[in-house]
Every structure is written in structure tokens, then in C-alpha cells.
Amino acid sequence: MPLWTIYHPPGAFSDVDKAELAEKITDVYGAVMPRFYVGVVFQPLEPRNFYVGGKPADRFVRIVMEHIARSFPSLEASRRFIDRINAVLAPYIADRGYDWELHVDETPFDYWSINGHYPPRPDTDDEKRWRAENRPSARTHA
Amino acid sequence: MPLWTIYHPPGAFSDVDKAELAEKITDVYGAVMPRFYVGVVFQPLEPRNFYVGGKPADRFVRIVMEHIARSFPSLEASRRFIDRINAVLAPYIADRGYDWELHVDETPFDYWSINGHYPPRPDTDDEKRWRAENRPSARTHA
Amino acid sequence: MPLWTIYHPPGAFSDVDKAELAEKITDVYGAVMPRFYVGVVFQPLEPRNFYVGGKPADRFVRIVMEHIARSFPSLEASRRFIDRINAVLAPYIADRGYDWELHVDETPFDYWSINGHYPPRPDTDDEKRWRAENRPSARTHA
């Protein structure tokens, strides 16, 4: 469900950084949903292909987060979540002197499929099994 | 309208596979709308730039489908459509042992333009002409 | 806020073209919001990775515009804006014989963060300061 796209200057993150970041982002979501829901795409961009404010961006990280499995129940919940994400990102971005921007879009739960299955609703027995087994399987409840 | 982005391991699809997949995806939509509405982008991703569940993804295909020209009229219609898409994808993905995930987002019809034209509403005379000619042209109806 | 992704054939735009386009796009948004809100990503795509209507696309430019900071207040406002964008693009796309398609999606204002800040509402004193200084800073109003 969450699909992250991280646009970044080619030299911003090492392969180790990327693996760590993906793991830590997955930990945040994994506290409430199956870990295999979390996709993270890194898109290195040369400054000639990436502009912020009309200027080539060689110190900027832009993150797009598509949420499907969960909707924020309130503004406060979204603030807590985004603050936590900013804290996870800090050692890799802010602390290295990069600027960054992120936004979340929410897309329809019903128009989503994994390995041909339609994912179970949050906190159902089926989702609990998907989470425990960390893989999709046929639903046993409607 | 539909814009598909297919994130995949670099070796997952040959050029022939990609051309076939694009053709078959276009056939599905082309049954009800102009074929030239259908855009398909393949994005090969090295495992160090693509993580699922916090692990490098070398056997995973992630598909994002942006729908503009049509909204699903019902849950049942969306199920039929997504099941059909999963069947079209199977020989290229499931049958080769890849895991895959897809989701659809719907974006506003009115904020869409092709070659400077605003596309006609579904099933109007203008859309029928666009479809028959497989190209955009000035609208003759409001 | 606006994040543009411009999918284009590798040879469609020179580096000078890209810098000019990013500047002109930023000028349009900069008339009403901070210039640093504007992100533009160029994604060159080989024809074997980019299909329109089921055919490899070597003369097609596809633009995705994600809007966060402002929502269109009316259909008329969206038409004026998109017409203006099409006019800005024309010398680089239509006048060179390329086909093109664009669409706008609007995503939630509240789920957006820049350098750890939550951007101020349109036309507030805080936004005016962000615009005048062309950088984010701590909000002084709720």
C-alpha cells in the first residue's frame, strides 16, 4: 500500500543508506500493517532533470507517498505520522544539509490488488494473518 | 487517460514483452475509449533502488494506474476490470514467478488536456469521432 | 507543491530547453505562491519503455501535475490555467511537432511538509513571508 517514490540527487544516498531507509520506513508502517505492503522506489535525478523553484536541484529530496491501506482518521493523526516520518528521514537528509519536501496522497482501497487478491480490510482476521505470515493469501472472510 | 507506470526488475520483460503488454493493455481500454488515450510507461529498477517490505525487490512488479476518462460506476465494475487486468498480466508476471501489486487512482476529468483540446465526455459524438479516427480534434459539441 | 513529471523522448529537449521550461513553469505558479514550491522532474523515456495507444512513443510528451498548495476554485479557473500552461509549452512541444497530454491531480493540503514545516494556508502572512524570502521558515501564525 504505501508506495513511496524518493527523488534524489544521484550522490545523496549510498546503497547502504537506501537499504537502511527502506527498512526504517517499513518499520513505521509495519507497526500496524503487513510489512510487504510497503514499497519504496528511489529515483536518482541529475540536476539537469530536476528543478525546484526554477533552479537545478542538487541538494533537494522530494518524496511522494501514495497511501492505500489506511486513511488518516484525523488531522492530528496525520501530524503525528508525518512528524515521525520527518524524524526517521532526518539523519539521511536534514542532518546532511539537504532540503526536502514530502506529500501524501490517498487512493481508493477498493481499487487495489496484490498477487490477484483484494487485500482484507484493516484489523480483520485476514489482515492479521497476512501480517503474521508476511505474504498475501486467499481471504477466509468476506 | 489511463496512464500506467510499471516498475519492474530490469530483466523481467524483453522489448517484445513490453510491446505485447502495451498492446494488450490498450486493447482492454480500447473496447470503450480511444486507443490513443492509453499511456504505458515501463520503469526498470535495480534492486538497490526498489524495496518491498524493506527488502531489495528483484522479483516484484508494481503497477500504478491513473484513470481520468472513466470512473468505476460500482465496486462490481471495478472488480471485473481488475480481474481482467490480472488475467492479461498473468503470462508475463504470475506465470513467470513474479509477485505483483497494482492500484488505481482516479483523477479529475476536467483537469485533462490532449494536444490543447479538452477531451469530450464519454460516449458523446465527439468521443466517438476521436475513437474512430484515433486522434484528437476540435470538439463540435459543447 | 506543484510537482510536475514530464515524460519525454530522450532527444526532445536540450538541457537549455529544460532549464527554460522549468523557469517558465515556475513563473506561472510564482505569480501566486512561493517559487520554491515548484518542482519539475524530467523523465527521458526510450520508445521501448513508453507506449501511447499501444505503439512506441517517440514523438509524445506526457505531463503529470500534482497540485497541493491550491485547488481550482471553478472549472473556468482550471480552463484559464491549463490554457496558459499549454501556451507556455507550445514552443517546446506543439511547435516542434510533438503530441502531448497533461492532467492535474489535487492532493490533500494537510498531508504536505517542507523541511519539516507544514506550509501556511494560501495568502496568509506566513505564506507571504515564505514567498518574499523564497524559503520555508517557522510559522508565526496558527
Short précis:
Three copies of one chain form a homotrimer. With 142 residues, chain A is an alpha/beta fold. Chain A is built from three helices and seven strands; from the N terminus they run E-H-E-E-E-E-H-E-E-H.
Overall description:
The structure is a homotrimer of 142-residue chains. Chain A is an alpha/beta fold and 142 residues long. Chain A has a single domain (3-133), classed as Macrophage Migration Inhibitory Factor. Chain A is built from three helices and seven strands; from the N terminus they run βαββββαββα. In chain A, the strands form two sheets. Chain A has a four-stranded mixed beta sheet with strand order 2-1-5-6, with helices on one face. A two-stranded antiparallel ribbon of chain A has the order 3-4. In chain A, helix 2 links the parallel strand 5 (60-67) and strand 6. The radius of gyration of chain A is 17 Å and the shape is elongated. Chains in contact: A-B, A-C, B-C. Chains A and C meet through strand 3, strand 4, helix 2 and strand 6 of A and helix 1, strand 2 and strand 7 of C.
